[in-house]
Amino acid sequence: MNNHVGLSIEQEFLQRLALDVVFVPYNTLKLSTELEQLEDWDSLAVVATVGLADTLSGVRLSGESIAACRQVGDLLSLILERIEPEREARYVIEAAGHRRSG
Amino acid sequence: MPVKALESAETCKAYIQAIEYYLPVAREENVAGDRLNGKLGITSRAIAAEGETAGDMAFAAAQRLLDQELVARSDIDFLLLCTQSADYVLPSTACVLQHRLGLAASCGALDVNQGCSGYVYCLSLAKGLIEAGMARHVLLLTGDTYSKYTHSLDRSVRLLFGDGASATLISAAATIHEPIGPFVFGTDGSGASQLIVPAGGARLPLTTCTDEELAEREDTYGNVRTAAHLYMDGPGIFSFTLNELPNAFHKLLDLTGRTRDDYDWFVFHQANRFMLEQLRRKLEIAEERLPVLMADYGNTVSSSIPIALRRMQEDGSLQDGQLLMLMGFGVGLSWAACNVQWRETKTEQLTLSMEVG
Q1: Staple B170 to which of A72, B114, B138, B219, CB 3.0 to 4.6 Å?
Q2: Could you give the 3-state DSSP secondary structure of residue B139?
Q3: For position B342, what pLDDT does the model report?
């Protein structure tokens, strides 16, 4: 169950980060990708990541915590750390509902 | 313009009669091809000349409006100036402008210290003055010179803010409609330090600042500023908008029983393209309903909504009877939203039963 949850969020996170924040093809982004290597990783990308975390899970991240991240995976860990267990459960339910309706 | 008395179903309502604006001639170009600039959607910013103040720019906007002679200068009952870069610590710049504009001695005048939410706040004050029978014509001015607060090496704010001013004539009309309102307000002073010029006020006067306090400091992004410059916590401000504005948006819909589809335009504070796009998606507003109009002059703080309205009027986007939602948000932290039923047609002005002035 936990693996499944992690995977769902990871996929959506990578997709949104690629398309909405750093503007690269989805499949080029890995958890090990260095943020500094991405041309669009700038101060506005930090702001956009605040939006990504909000959209993905309602988590509020500070600019400092995002700016301290080195790799894509660090950003995901930051979000996952902040997600409460109940919110995690709600995400699964919503995601399942979305897949059914979609 | 003809005047009339109230008929039975009608009440005295405030409406926006005209808007004009002024932008300084000088432009500072944001580097073309720069990826950050591309995302912000700002190519150049209007910059006030050395010695050109918010009062000067508001004066120029007011002259453009009053020269149309929609109303005699002597009939302006109240002057509101929304600014965070007043000409003096005291007196109110509005008092200086009352004289400069040749307004009557019976005209009330005061400054309102508010930023990006200021236009919506001042509309509520103008509506209150008019609908309580204290004024027939309110001249609402906005003006700011944030460029004088930004450090040239601070890209986090330098690339965003432009200088500008606006003038709006708000008048009384006899109508069964609600041309302005209702309103939703909000404040979170715990975020005061997220958008701030720390030095220069009474808390940290420039005359007593130490060299240490006024020293240039470089942050982790390489942006440079002193305590006397504008500081913005971009992620913090963005987090606030995502947190608070959807509540304000839905509260206004609930107040009026309206849905998104009832609105012709959502004219929001023109912060930058990135911010408006993120907000638009969060509020699930159709792209064509939310104008983005700041590319060639930048974020003009409390002037951004009236300048956008005037530009939409000029290009024919605004039509009589359209329903608009205005929303301002930013420094304070402060936010406000309201409905405006746009009216282009000349309205018979109302004779108030009480004598004003």
Answers
A1: B138
A2: strand
A3: 95
The answer to whether the CB of B109 falls within 8 A of the CB of B331 is no
What letter does residue B298 receive in the DSSP assignment? -
Q: Which helix or strand (DSSP H or E) is residue B293 part of?
A: none
The rounded distance, in Å, linking the Cα atoms of A64 and B269 is 26
pLDDT in the model for residue B36: 84
Distance of alpha carbon B238 from alpha carbon B233, whole angstroms = 9
How many Å apart are CA B96 and CA B79, to the nearest integer?
Answer: 11
Q: What is the pTM of this model?
A: 0.89
**Which residues are B173's β-sheet partners?**
B13, B349
Most distant CA atoms of chain B, gap in Å: 67
pLDDT band at residue B42 using 50, 70 and 90 as cut-offs = very high
Closest by CA position to B268, among listed B334, B329, B331 = B329
List all residues 6 or more positions away from B33 whose beta carbon is below 8 Å from its beta carbon.
none
Chain B contact probe: residue of A47, A52, A54, A82 with most B CBs at under 10 A: A47
| Tokens 């610590």 -> residue | B89
Candidate from A44, A51, A54 with C-beta closest to B40:
A44
Contact B234 A44 (CB under 8 A): yes
Contact assignment for A43 to B278 by CB distance below 8 Å? no
Phi, then psi, of B319 in degrees rounded to 5: -125, 150
Query: For residue A27, what pLDDT is reported?
Result: 87
ipTM of the complex: 0.73
